Amino acid sequence: MLNDDAQPGTATERAYRFTKAGILDGSLPAGELISEGQVARPLRLSRTPVREAFLQLQAEGLLKLFPKRGALVVPVSTGEVEAVIEARDVIESHAIDRVAAASDDVLDEVVAAMTAAVADQVAAVTAADELAFVEADRLFHTVLVRAGCRSLLLDVYGSLRDRQLRMNLGALGGRFPGRSEGLVAEHRALLDRLRARDAPGARQVLREHLAGTRASVLGAPAV
Amino acid sequence: MLNDDAQPGTATERAYRFTKAGILDGSLPAGELISEGQVARPLRLSRTPVREAFLQLQAEGLLKLFPKRGALVVPVSTGEVEAVIEARDVIESHAIDRVAAASDDVLDEVVAAMTAAVADQVAAVTAADELAFVEADRLFHTVLVRAGCRSLLLDVYGSLRDRQLRMNLGALGGRFPGRSEGLVAEHRALLDRLRARDAPGARQVLREHLAGTRASVLGAPAV
DNA sequence: CTCGGACGACTGAGATGCAAGAGGGATGCG
DNA sequence: CGCATCCCTCTTGCATCTCAGTCGTCCGAG
Q1: Alpha-carbon separation of residue B161 from A5, A159, B52, B92, B135 (angstroms)
Q2: Domains along chain B?
Q3: What is the C-alpha radius of gyration for chain A, rounded to an integer number of angstroms?
Q4: Facing residues of A70 across strands?
């Protein structure tokens, strides 16, 4: 937010990061109609790279471009929450199946990585570091998906997590109201099932996990 | 291919369609490094809209942009075939579960639409109309996914089918070497299972169906 | 004959300029 | 005072221009 300019990368990348960050952290509020100039001016860029960034963000579903009108920061609708949860369920369940059926070596490696992520989460909770917690949470799930899915689904999953991050921030204002412990416990349960190669059990845990996420996002009136 | 100009839509759209069509029908061969001018010149456009089209196609995975070098028409690798098949399996299986658990009304409607698609396929086979056959095949699956998945997965599935289309054309030169009957039979079997709300059975049929597709794409040396 | 460095053509990244379309507010009329 | 209309501004779409990086080629030295 502060270092608007003099960032690394191409102009397009800078515009992309700036805009995406703005959307994710809420400084570009959902439902707002933003213009290319709004991004180009503070970054001291021309509109060309901004346009390319907008296009990319539209492909990710964070923006919706209206001809001659502007770019709408798509609001997180209830439907979208459901869609994201559904997609996560489908993809992560698949990953579970694959990992549970993998060789010992692969399974061990994945479980180790996921265990480490959980440890990071616990550390983040004690340090009261929101960002680190979210990052570790993301890592936990990403490791699973990376191990169990091919590139295509993996890419989809990546953009999914971005949207979910935004949902959390939008609905909860960035707070995880005491759900941290529950999340960690569910992660541990998932790991247990995975370690035992109990795919149906792991999927069940995942489903409950996602149901909890869904509830905390949808059911939170405010703070 | 013939009507290069005077098409409807914005310049960006025209560039997008032109390039995508070229990639899908093979006139822009996979592995080739194409330049913006190559598309802009025949369409009598400037390079700006072409660039935007390239960006979009990169997001869909059909192109890979190399800075200052050009745009690579990504070759259909064995890995990509596997990835597409995997993703289709995951998404369509999920759709099957959802549809099989849906209300009678929904199920009936979906089955009716899919039955109609199969009928179209049969008609296309007798008419020896490749294009219509592929279109009907696509419709068959799309109806299923549309009924069983929310927007997000549906979008993913859409781009999936494009890539698959390209794989077919690339590997088989557009021919379906006598597999048409098999495809129709498998579609019918899938419909039977679906009609009986036998989700596991339907998934099994689907898996075999996709295995057949995979084999015909990967394992087909020629005709 | 082969290898290496420099030159030139080509390509994309980004900036700028112009024109068309959409919306909102002021204005004139009933 | 309410409403339809016009105009003015804002925003994007696209073209054009400049700059920088990359690659192929050519020429000379060993």
Answers
A1: 41, 20, 22, 12, 11
A2: 11-73 (1.10.10.10), 78-218 (1.20.120.530)
A3: 19
A4: A66
**Residue from the list B87, B149, B152 with its beta carbon closest to the beta carbon of A152:** B87
Instruction: Using the predicted structure, report yes or no on whether residue A175 has a pLDDT greater than 80.
Output: no
How many angstroms separate the CA of residue B57 from the nearest CA in chain A? Answer: 10
Asked whether B76 and B167 are in contact (CB, 8 A), the reply is yes
DSSP three-state, residue B71: strand
Digit-coded pLDDT (tens) for B162-204: 888 888 766 555 555 567 888 999 999 999 999 999 999 999 9
Q: How far is it, in rounded angstroms, from Cα A20 to Cα A57?
A: 7
Residue whose C-alpha is closest to residue B203's, from B118, B144, B158, B138: B144
Look at the block and give the residue holding tokens 């997001």: B59
For the record, the structure tokens of A141 come out as: 């799930």
Q: Is residue A21 pLDDT above 80, yes or no?
A: yes
DSSP letter for B60, please: T
Report chain B residues whose CB lies below 8 A from the CB of A51: 52
Between CA B46 and C1' D16 the distance (Å) reads 9
